[in-house]
């Protein structure tokens, strides 16, 4: 259970991130998919990560410390059309540099909007993760916006569309920041992986 969550740092370079002695979990996905909202839901703190109705709100690598034991990282979204090419390239470099170099990264949660059919931008990103040995877990967001059976259908469509990328089907969670669906499952998962991290030290 998440009892304590504090903001630590924002920066644009993995080399300046907090000490890598604690396990870490990153949240990534298209702009506006609900990364920051999900972090606030998980930590039960509406003001922790900055949220916006407009895409492109999160622009840096943001570290939050959880229960003094592990880090949650809020990342900028990918696939945001309304910024300049240079800025987009900078963000991409920052995110990819972080994901491939951060040694304590236990899992990267790739957030997928559960309302949509499989999107090329998400599939491209996941392919890049697979090619760069970045371990991912899928998190379907905004499940409150449609029926349970429709969510299930969209999850299956996504797994099917991505099945050539993975040797084994990826682990996934279904969540809603509005109704807190998936909170226990996702925080329990992070807690378990954290314990494994310390057990291996
Ligand atoms: P960037 O930082 O711009 O990349 O976006 P983000 O992925 O962090 O998204 P953010 O959490 O800022 O949320 C974007 C919008 O989606 C906001 O208007 C949220 O209120 C809304 N939203 C996020 N999660 C949910 C959810 O589970 N259900 C519903 N109904 N709305 C959500
Ligand atoms: Mg955000």
Topology readout:
Layout: E1 5-11, E2 24-29, H1 35-43, E3 61-66, E4 70-74, H2 85-101, E5 105-113, H3 120-131, E6 136-141, H4 148-161, E7 172-174, H5 183-199
Parallel strand pairs: 2-4, 2-5, 5-6, 6-7
Antiparallel strand pairs: 1-3, 3-4
Bound molecules: guanosine-5'-triphosphate and magnesium ion (MG).
What would you say about this model in short?
With 201 residues, the chain is of the alpha/beta class. The protein is built from five helices and seven strands.
Tell me what you see in this structure.
It is a single chain. The protein is of the alpha/beta class and 201 residues long. The protein has one domain (5-199): P-loop containing nucleotide triphosphate hydrolases (Rossmann fold). The protein is 34% helix and 21% strand. The chain contains five helices and seven strands; from the N terminus they run E-E-H-E-E-H-E-H-E-H-E-H. It has helices at 35-43, 85-101, 120-131, 148-161, 183-199, and strands spanning 5-11, 24-29, 61-66, 70-74, 105-113, 136-141, 172-174. The chain has a seven-stranded mixed β-sheet, sandwiched between helices. The radius of gyration is 16 Å and the shape is globular. It starts with a strand and ends with a helix. The mean pLDDT is 94. Bound molecules: guanosine-5'-triphosphate and magnesium ion (MG). Guanosine-5'-triphosphate is lined by residues 29, 31-37, 51-53, 55-58, 76-77, 141-142, 144-145, 176-178.
